[in-house]
Amino acid sequence: MRVAGAGGYSATFVTLQTLGLMPLAVSAAPKLQLAPGAGKGIKVVVLGAGIAGLVSAYEMGKAGFQCTVLEARDRPGGRVWTVRGGDIVDSIGEARQIASFAGGNYFNAGAARIPSIHKTILGYCKDLGIALEVEINSSRSTLLVNDRDFGGKPVEQRQAINDTRGHVSELLAKCVTRGALDQELNGEDRERMLGFLRAYGDLTSGLVYEGSERAGFARQPRAGFDAGELRPPLDLHTLLDARFWNAMLFEEGLDYQATMFQPVGGMDRIPYAFAKKLGRVVQYGSPVKEIRKTANGVRVIYSQRRDDKAIEADYCICALPAPILHSIPNDFAPRIRRAVAATVYADNYKIAWESKRFWETDFNIYGGISWLSSGPVGLVWYPSGGLFSETGVVLSGYGPEGTTEFGSLPAMEAKLNASRAAVGRLHSGYDQHLRNPIYVSWGKIPYNQGSWVRGFSHPDGNEGDYYDGPYREFIEPDDRIYFVGDHCSHINAWMEGAVLSAHRALEMMGERVRAEGRARAAN
Ligand code: PHE
């Protein structure tokens, strides 16, 4: 009552929540607490205008810090990169590509989906007025294929999933009825278990799996006397051989569960919205040349339109990826230099094609991912935006290059051929519709040279867990330099991780600014 007297309704509400007397919304995004005016008179240089750098500058701007963001490219976003018609893709050691997609068609070459549990980035989308739509990450109509099984013919996920479930349920029911589980289940639970299996596997009353409507029809029911015809179930032996499990279970991964989201029109709507708020704070075409420490701050040398320039600041927020930091002369502490050198990045690629939407019109596929368990290209990912329109951009190939079968293909040409062939194996004859391919391989993209952190090179020559090594260094500031980015979070390779790393760094820095202010006032 005293809290209510002093602070009114909202203070009471928050107090009761804190005391555990009122439910706390699990969905609430933790808000960064930087007091307005906290950064007055403090200069900060932010390196890199990816999500972590942009969020840092946006929040610091609101708190009165004087920020400059140095961005090597002519666009914001880093790996949040949407390629549209006319865009140029330059890669190290590859010929220049120019996208020729029709208006409205786009390819999210980096970030392409947002889990609903990533509340902080979704909160920014709401604040910035970015329209979101569902990113359809899985669909029962998508296909699974393994060259050596089912005559190399693709099966629909609804078949593989429901026929597998039916067979497993029948087997388990046999165990129960033959008494093999009498030790584990009492009489009552045995009956309940059989009831569950009948429902779970769509078994007959005799506990046999004879196929299920869930797996789809060979011939759809129609009006009149045509009740349609069920598909015969896929046989268990071949299903076991095909090992579709990873593909079938992909949508169960917490980060991949429905409902996922994407901005309408391309993922780069997010960085561009931040960049618009920041205006001239972001300096494009400004690659960092040196990162130096001064007595009470930092000095960063960068180039801009071929001129070398220097900027001094009280703090530095460094949002550059490790492979890039590695080649920038710096005054980092030895522990950070070692962390930078030891961090190993993955080199994932994506290939996208423009096409008429045959997957929708002829295969009943609206979004989701088809999987190939043999061959160099493992998946085909259908667009979630622009459903029912004439053309769209379909992804064929997303994975590491490294020492994989795909990575060892001789040249871009061979990689594009493999990508096209993967579509052909899933959708026989339809690969002829694919045109205007774009290949983005993050290991070869300037200013990234890697897709995300994969591990760290352990002194013994093995690859270790990044979180046991370099991570521990990056999350502690080096004098007045704070490291941010998804690699400074436990949500590696997601925008949410980049955002949360920025929040954490700003909280630490804000605390320090406050403490130094107090010390100065006391002197
Ligand atoms: N976020 C990436 C995607 O959506 C996948 C990823 C997650 C990669 C975690 C590495 C680590 O495809």
Provide structural commentary.
- With 523 residues, the protein is of the alpha+beta class.
- It folds into 4 domains: 1-30, no CATH class; 32-78 and 268-342 and 463-522, FAD/NAD(P)-binding domain, CATH 3.50.50.60; 82-142 and 257-267 and 347-444, Polyamine Oxidase, Chain A, domain 2 (Alpha-Beta Complex), CATH 3.90.660; 156-242, de novo design (two linked rop proteins).
- The protein is 31% helix and 22% strand.
- It has 14 helices and 27 strands.
- The strands form 8 sheets. A 7-stranded mixed beta sheet has the order 10-9-21-22-23-20-24.
- Helix 2 links the parallel strand 1 and strand 2 (66-70).
- Helix 2 (51-62) runs parallel beside helix 8 (269-278), helix 2 (51-62) runs parallel beside helix 14 (495-522) and helix 4 (157-177) packs antiparallel against helix 5 (187-201).
- The mean pLDDT is 95.
- Phenylalanine binds at residues 113, 452, 492-494.
Key traits:
Polyamine Oxidase, Chain A, domain 2, alpha+beta, FAD/NAD(P)-binding domain, 27 strands, binds phenylalanine, 523 residues
